[in-house]
Amino acid sequence: MPVTRERGQRQVFCGLAGIVWLHRKMQDAFFLVVGSRTCAHLLQSAAGVMVFAEPRFATAILQDRDLAGLADCNEELDRVVTELLARRPDIGTLFLVASCPSEVIKLDLDTAAERLAASQQGRVQILAYSGSGLDTTFTQGEDTCLTALVPRMPELPAAERSLLVLGTLPDIVEDQFARLFAEIGIAPVHFLPPRKAAELPPVGPGTLLLAAQPFVGETAAALAKRGATLIEAPYPFGIEGSRAWFAAAAAAWGLPAERVEAAIAAPVARAERGLANYREQLAGKRISFLPDSQLEIPLGRFLSRECGMQLTEVGVPYLDRRMMAAELELLPAGLRLTEGQDLERQLDRLRQDRPDLTVCGLGLANPLEAEGLTTKWSIELVFSPVHGFDQAADLAELFARPLNRRQRLAF
Amino acid sequence: MQLTVWTYEGPPHIGAMRVAASMRDVHCVLHAPQGDTYADLLFTMIARSAKRPPVTYTTFQARDLGGDTAELVRKTLQDTVQRFKPRALLVGEACTAELIQDQPGAMAEGMGFDIPVVPLELPAFTRKENWGASETFFSLVRALLRGHKPAERPAMTGRRPRANLLGPTMLGFRCRDDVTEVTRLLASVGVDVNVVAPAGAAPEDLLRLPEADFNVCLYPEVAYSTCAWLERMFQQPTVKTVPIGVGASRDFLLEVGQVAGIDPAPAIAAAQTRLPWYSRSVDSTYLTGKRVFIFGDATHVIAAARVATEELGFEVVGLGSYSREFARELRAAAEGYGVEALITDDYLQVEARVLELAPELVLGTQMERHIAKRAGIPCAVISAPVHVQDFPARYAPQMGFEGANVIFDTWVHPLMMGLEEHLITMFREDIEFNDEAAPSHLGPAARQGGAQTRAEPAADDDAEGAGADDAIIWDSDAEKELRKIPFFVRGKARRNTERFARERGVATITVETLYDAKAHFGR
């Protein structure tokens, strides 16, 4: 699959945005960004519409005097963390999240995390990762967060094996998957991230690793270093993707394909019924993806193969060929696949293509709508239950909805 | 470092973006890392703008830091001017770029563009959004008008006076409708609007600023320094009254009348506003003395305090602002209400003050909605920062006489209606209609015991402050009696009683102590 690489202005979130869903998934975790007012502003702009009684994230905003000398900066961080832990004694795990400013001034948060953990005498687990825009794009923030958890995971006993599902899934999807794995006969199955950061799943040479999200490449590599084996599979979007995903897990576990087919028969039948309606609405429609979350390739695959859409352009912020190998094989030949972004040029192409549907971020969605292009804002795909058989129709509906809406409105 | 849960203002470059996005034919180039484009969302989503803000970012990444970020800036500037062909260019840095010091402003000035280039100094680690907006607007006006001889303004006789409306920006609180309303106010006394800026103005419009007879400083947070400069350079007087509330709108017209040499009395007499009658009607009697806490930017807080006391009959028990630039004005206003102004941008301090004061109504920003929800206190929004619901489709000014109508509805709405309030006080054991069944918009905190639980954290802090040995015990009858006090004043009653007991060395609060305290403190 040939890929065009582009460089220029990028219209994407930084990895800090991952906090918005990670703090909901891990109920005992708190995310403290060490950064500037810009970082704090980003977080509240992204999450502010949820009126939290008490949010589980905050920012330690660097002040002028912090920029003067590093020793002072570390003392300041200790003070802020102590203050925070006093305010929120229920915090089990504290993530120190690095940002662009903290990285440019080379504030070492890994060392700070160790020092602070020691001073807390094990009452609180303290970890560090980077969510900076310099290093990470949107969902990559989850990857760096999970990577930080890997060294804390307990060792899986030598003789045992387990399946580890990697990447944040909505609780309802996680439960569905757990039931299907049980029916297929794979056990034990663990999920990373867990619902409590203090209850990390074990990992070892007996661990088979199955990625549920395409953006967890670094974590997968870190788990491989601890002996886990990555199962190559497409991602569980739509019927085809989910079937192949479960099948790959079963094959790696040493189970016959019939076991999978028997277990998924009913959900597949339901999903087919659910999808039929949306396929009618989507078939033949042209769609473009602007780079955002790394979900563009698997979703494009689902929409083209199962919903009959035509892919005009698929843009990804970066392409991890190892994580994407199985997906790339399923993409239609001759697809215009672009890695990176040069925003204005990409918009020129988009205006020329005038696809029926454009998947893009919220900074672009309304302006493109005003130009007469129908859009699907991409962040929702990260926040909605879209994986697995029983969500296949919901996933298609997310793309059909804006088209449907455009038809309904008289003005 | 400052621990921040919520921030009242964004960094200063957001202020610069607000000015650029408010105007026409102005483009802003920001040296900023990948990800800082999140700010576009504020305009396209919160303000629901149909076009992208005219801002181009360099979006550098880690790999660029090893190379030549200055070259990246140069290329971005070149491409941007070529593509968008703006008539004025703003060049600034976001916080991270400030640390690597590529001097994009100076670079742009040296690139030979044939349009005005305005380099922006936006110290991201000391200043904030409103300062950034004010500085950007001022820098742009100064750059465009520098060297312009103040053209002789024709005498005001024989024509209608003209005013500039300065300060409205995108993402400002209700700026869109305030401009309409103030234009209407000015028209009512026969004054025309010369230029509205930054909102809707192009660089050429700014060149016409000196043609006005005076400036109306609608939003001092954004326009004060520009107005002061125009006053110095072009001898244009500034109308400083911000017309929020009936009284302030009248004062505004009086000031305009004075500056423009016209008699505003007929216009004031003809003004249509329902607030005074609504507030005077007996239905509003129960609003008397409602204890209110006010927080926001200085302009809206000062205005709100006046409306609350003079026009709605509330009692201001606390007020504060995150606008440090106007701390002096705010302190002076607070003194008038016998309270101490809280000047802070620390959300946690505001929260502590609200819990301590246990008011019956909070007038604040989006952030105070969080505090009020947690504490189960009714709340209305009076100032930015605000979320999408406060950029409404309907006409919703805060200024002028229609603004007063909007304010009456908005502030009274979250309070429990009078009859409901009476019935809850009289019969406390109704299964549906009791304290726990407080209005659903107050969230679960209100249903879990109301103001009493809320005031508790503050009360505990207080007890610690006074020394742990004088812990005060409520006997069970007194506790039961306390629960008969309507929830919205219960927090205050608890605090007063404890204070009363502490002052008199009473160790156990009985029903008697409760009523003694009630008699002592009055309501």
Automatic annotation (TrEMBL), chain A:
* Gene Ontology terms for molecular function: 4 iron, 4 sulfur cluster binding; ATP binding; metal ion binding; oxidoreductase activity, acting on iron-sulfur proteins as donors; oxidoreductase activity, acting on the CH-CH group of donors, iron-sulfur protein as acceptor
Single GO biological process annotation from the record: photosynthesis, dark reaction
- The record places domain Nitrogenase/oxidoreductase component at 14-402
State the pathway, as annotated in the record.
Answer: Porphyrin-containing compound metabolism; bacteriochlorophyll biosynthesis (light-independent)
InterPro entries xrefs: LIPOR_BchN/ChlN, Nase/OxRdtase_comp1, Protochl_reductN
The protein's required cofactors: [4Fe-4S] cluster
Q: Which reaction does it catalyse?
A: chlorophyllide a + oxidized 2[4Fe-4S]-[ferredoxin] + 2 ADP + 2 phosphate = protochlorophyllide a + reduced 2[4Fe-4S]-[ferredoxin] + 2 ATP + 2 H2O
Q: How does it assemble?
A: Protochlorophyllide reductase is composed of three subunits; BchL, BchN and BchB. Forms a heterotetramer of two BchB and two BchN subunits.
Q: What's the protein name? A: Light-independent protochlorophyllide reductase subunit N
UniProtKB/TrEMBL annotation, chain B:
Q: What Enzyme Commission number(s) appear in the record?
A: 1.3.7.7
Q: How is the cofactor bound?
A: Binds 1 [4Fe-4S] cluster per heterodimer. The cluster is bound at the heterodimer interface by residues from both subunits.
Catalytic reactions of this protein = chlorophyllide a + oxidized 2[4Fe-4S]-[ferredoxin] + 2 ADP + 2 phosphate = protochlorophyllide a + reduced 2[4Fe-4S]-[ferredoxin] + 2 ATP + 2 H2O
Q: Where is the Nitrogenase/oxidoreductase component domain?
A: 12-415
Where are the residues of the annotated region Disordered? Answer: 439-465
Q: List the cofactors.
A: [4Fe-4S] cluster
The UniProt entry's GO biological process terms, in alphabetical order, are: light-independent bacteriochlorophyll biosynthetic process; photosynthesis, dark reaction
Describe which pathway this protein belongs to, using the record's wording: Porphyrin-containing compound metabolism; bacteriochlorophyll biosynthesis (light-independent)
Q: What does this protein do?
A: Component of the dark-operative protochlorophyllide reductase (DPOR) that uses Mg-ATP and reduced ferredoxin to reduce ring D of protochlorophyllide (Pchlide) to form chlorophyllide a (Chlide). This reaction is light-independent. The NB-protein (BchN-BchB) is the catalytic component of the complex.
Assembly and interaction partners: Protochlorophyllide reductase is composed of three subunits; BchL, BchN and BchB. Forms a heterotetramer of two BchB and two BchN subunits.
Q: What is this protein called?
A: Light-independent protochlorophyllide reductase subunit B
Its lineage opens with: Bacteria, Pseudomonadati, Pseudomonadota, Gammaproteobacteria, Chromatiales
